[in-house]
Amino acid sequence: FTGNGAFDDETLARVVVTTASSYFSRLRILGARRCLDPAEFPRDVLRLVAYYRKRGYPQVRVDTTVRVVEAARGGGQPAVAVTFRVAEGRPLRVDSVRVFGLDAVRPSARQLPAFPLRPGSVFDRAALEAARDTIRTRLRDRGYPSADALVSWSSDTARLTASVEVEVVPGQFRRLGRIDVVVDTTDGVRRRVPESVVRSTLGVRVGDPVSAFDLVEAQRTLYQTDAWR
Q1: How many Å apart are CA 172 and CA 210, to the nearest integer?
Q2: Cβ of 12: how many Cβ atoms within 10 Å?
Q3: Which has the closest alpha carbon to 123: 43, 59, 48?
Q4: pTM (two decimals)
Q5: Which of 94, 157, 210, 213 is disulfide-compatible with 174, CB 3.0–4.6 A?
Q6: How remote is the C-alpha of 98 from its chain's centroid?
Q7: Are 62 and 85 in contact (CB under 8 A)?
Q8: Closest CA to 47 of 77, 25, 9, 18
Q9: 151 touches 129 (CB < 8 A)
Q10: Cβ proximity of 55 and 38 under 8 Å
Q11: How buried is 103 (Cβ within 10 angstroms: 0-12 exposed, 13-18 middle, 19+ buried)?
């Protein structure tokens, strides 16, 4: 890769399908020998362009060069060196960020990680989507099981700026009102573990804020006892 400054070679190599043969295979000792796929190689250009654009580089251009570095021997194929030439262009930068709706949630649920986008930063839609998912997950783990975060943004192509809005829709705060323990005994196996033991093992109690994470942990805890399927 040449011309890339925003992302290193290792990052871009994970975006494309084209992969170099292993070092030992080049010495013809052992290892994986990989061929240049004529169908996937042009798509790699599209993959790189899409990757850059989603991360705030709308002007990006990608070109390629294929150079023979070793002639074909014994009826085989020649070895080639592939170069992806990247012209990143100017990035799309954040002009303003507005996150609203958190005033409707309880103070204990407002402790969220710092928002990844700020005025002046590159408008990275992947980071924006990750932030939306984090807000939604955190609220669903703090008593808001139907919480959502709605993202909208607009861009000025002339100024290369973007304005971002995130509306937090928490829904109603919920607590655990009842915990039912239902044991399947259809196989004729009688119940051996008292319900009180099950309840004490769960780790969640009536009155706790509803938490998707805590419910999954309770399920995992029961499985780890090896007392149930």
Answers
A1: 11
A2: 20
A3: 59
A4: 0.80
A5: 210
A6: 22
A7: yes
A8: 18
A9: yes
A10: no
A11: exposed
Tokens of 22: 């292993």
SS3 assignment for 109-178: HCCCCCCCCCCCCECCHHHHHHHHHHHHHHHHCCCCCCCEEEEEEEEECCCCEEEEEEEEECCCCCECCC
**181: its two tokens:** 């323990």
Mean pLDDT of successive 10-residue stretches along the chain, which has 229 residues:
96 94 58 79 96 97 91 73 96 96 89 89 96 94 95 95 96 94 78 87 94 94 86
Structure tokens at 82: 């592939």
Q: Which amino acid is at 131?
A: A
Residues 6+ apart with CB under 8 A from 91: 6, 56, 57, 122, 123, 160
Token pair 């999954």: residue: 216
Beta bridge pairs of residue 163 = 96, 154
